[in-house]
Design goal:
It is found in: Secreted, Extracellular space, Extracellular matrix. Pfam families: wnt. By secondary structure, the chain is mainly α. The chain has one domain. It contains five helices and no strands. Helix 2 packs antiparallel against helix 3.
């Protein structure tokens, strides 16, 4: 399923994956479907989890907002399993508790990644 390839910290990525793959057109069984997020839940998620404007629009969208439960459960799973997986490593996922704020270790890691990546060819 396409949703497994999603960056869990950015719900807008879920939007792009769902829209590009056309998965929202597939029939969903109403009896097994979770209720979508209400307006109040979207606003609460915006304050609690720091949803950006585009992510909030995704949460409120009639056709796509059913995916918010999956995105929330995935983010909770990452918060649960990441520290257990990397507990014996130098970086043990402590920074994810501060998201959406980016801590210095994540900024430094991003800059190291950018400097380590090979330059793009010209032309």
């Amino acid at each position: 399923m396409h949703l497994l390839c999603v960056n869990l910290h950015h719900v807008s990525t879920v939007h792009a994956t769902i829209h590009c793959s056309g998965i929202y057109r597939y029939a969903r069984e109403k009896s097994r479907e979770l209720d979508h997020f209400s307006e109040a839940e979207c606003v609460y998620s915006s304050y609690r989890y720091g949803l950006r404007r585009r992510q909030l629009r995704f949460c409120r969208d009639e056709r796509r907002r059913y995916a918010m439960h999956a995105a929330l459960k995935s983010a909770q799973a990452v918060a649960y399993y990441c520290p257990r997986t990397f507990r014996d490593r130098r970086w043990n996922c402590t920074s994810i508790s501060y998201l959406p704020l980016v801590t210095p270790d994540l900024r430094r890691g991003q800059s190291l990644f950018n400097s380590a990546s090979p330059p793009k060819p010209l032309g």
